[in-house]
Specification:
The chain is α/β, with parallel strands linked by helices. It has 19 helices and 8 strands. Strand 7, helix 18 (378-393) and strand 8 form a beta-alpha-beta unit. The structure holds iron/sulfur cluster (2 copies).
């Protein structure tokens, strides 16, 4: 991770430089061990290596330059926040990562200890002053999805400029109306924040930009159904993670070029692992940067990951917004329709997720599913039981794992995953 040219910028962001140096050092080593040690990587991954090496440098400089030109930065923690409206108001939309243990002790003074690692992480990053994205945000948008997040945002609001969007928990007509009202309220908020009016023209353009990014990720996922697997699961996860904070147009171009390379590899029947390697679908909670522990364990246990059924994966890319609308009203309705299709475990009932996971296992030619939940995540741990039964009934082998961001359970995870991979063989 590069540092020297950016120290002044970090200082201006009021960051804790010694703590931040320590974070970058750990992150650099972790990345080296998990990513750079891989063999047979696609050439296009150099772009992702570069983006990650500059994750706290060049991209933050771009955000600061945009701010100097009067643009606003909006941070989010959930795929429910309609990025199309952020972009239509000429603001920059970034996903705040929350994928590492940091500032946990401070975080536990604001939220109970039995809170999931993701929530503790976003609070910890803020309190420890080590996240330049959080510090760059003019507004952070939370949402009423799980109880843990809802209550944590109350505490977080004492430390950061927050706005809360209500997300329904069912999918009836009344819930559609609620979501529509909330999407309109978010539109107003963006207009007030930026001083720009969102027009049919600006929204049409931003719908296309965000859809194009979803399309390239769909293309990537489609290519992963090939055997041998043309890309590792770790690299594919990294691509999905980077999609949350890179410039969307630049990202789409780079990943399209990478997909071209994958197609060449597929035609040559080449891959990152032999054709008889067990193929695993990963399903469950989102894995934010740098949460690469379980993918590393799976792929160093003789399997290859061929899909991510999560918000940092298929859940965020499966559905496009209908692009045929011409008026603002039609486009807002198209946003509501698309966002209400998200199959987050916060919904009740959420049977479509069971269907989606089963269909995805088939489409990706997966031999088995590893369900991943963060400890204390009620929604996904509950659904793990239900989904496990459904996968049993479809005769798809599955393994449910609940973990956190610490390395304490790594040996135990290896033992369980290796035993599962043996079954798949
Ligand atoms: S799992 Fe649910 S709450 Fe979490 S990011 Fe996805 S949609 Fe949002
Ligand atoms: S992992 Fe679970 S508990 Fe944690 S924020 Fe997401 S839905 Fe909530």
């Amino acid at each position: 991770m590069s540092e020297a040219p950016y120290r002044e910028m970090w200082e201006n962001l009021n960051m804790d430089l010694p703590a931040h140096d320590a974070l970058l050092e750990v992150l650099g080593k972790f990345y080296g061990d998990i990513y750079m040690s891989q063999k047979g990587r696609l050439q296009g991954m150099e772009y992702l290596d570069f983006v990650l090496s500059e994750v706290h440098g060049l991209r933050i400089k771009e955000l600061q330059d945009a701010k100097a030109e009067g643009r606003k930065i909006v941070g989010t923690f959930c795929v429910f926040v309609p990025e199309e409206l952020t972009l239509a108001a000429e603001a920059i939309h970034v996903g705040l990562c929350a994928g590492a243990d940091a500032g946990t002790e401070q975080a536990e003074k604001l939220v109970p200890r039995n809170t999931c690692a993701l929530i503790k992480s976003f609070i910890g990053f803020k309190l420890a002053k080590i996240c330049p994205y959080t510090e760059s945000c003019d507004l952070i948008v939370g949402e009423t999805t799980c109880d843990g997040k809802k209550k944590a945002y109350e505490a977080f609001a004492e430390h950061a400029p927050m706005y809360i969007m209500e997300v329904p928990q069912q999918k009836r007509e009344a819930d559609r109306q609620l979501l529509k009202a909330e999407i309109l309220r978010y539109k107003d908020k963006m207009e007030k924040l930026t001083g720009k009016t969102i027009t049919a023209d600006s929204l049409k353009k931003s719908i296309k930009v965000v859809n194009d990014r979803r399309r390239v990720l769909q293309r990537l996922n489609g290519l992963r159904s090939a055997n041998p697997a043309p890309i590792s699961g770790r690299d594919a996860l990294l691509i999905n993670q980077v999609s949350f904070y890179d410039d969307p147009v630049r990202f789409t171009q780079s990943i399209n070029a990478l997909c071209d390379q994958m197609e060449v590899r597929i035609k040559a029947k080449e891959g990152v692992a032999p054709a008889d390697t067990p193929r695993v679908l990963l399903s469950g909670c989102p894995m934010a940067v740098p949460n690469w522990k379980l993918p590393y364990v799976i792929e160093s246990s003789g399997a290859v990951i061929v899909g991510e059924e999560s918000c940092i994966g298929e859940r965020n890319t499966r559905d496009l917004v209908d692009e045929s609308g011409e008026t603002l009203e039609q486009m807002i309705d198209a946003l509501v329709d698309r966002y209400l299709r998200i199959d987050c475990a916060c919904f009740t009932p959420n049977d479509e997720r069971m269907d989606n996971v089963t269909a995805m296992a088939g489409a990706q030619n997966a031999d088995g599913v590893i369900q991943y939940s963060l400890m204390f995540c009620q929604p996904y741990e509950h659904e793990a039981i239900k989904l496990g039964k459904r996968l049993d009934s479809e005769e798809i082998p599955s393994l449910a794992i609940a973990t956190d961001y610490s390395m304490e359970d790594i040996e135990q995870l290896k033992t369980r995953v290796e035993a599962f991979v043996e079954i798949l063989k």
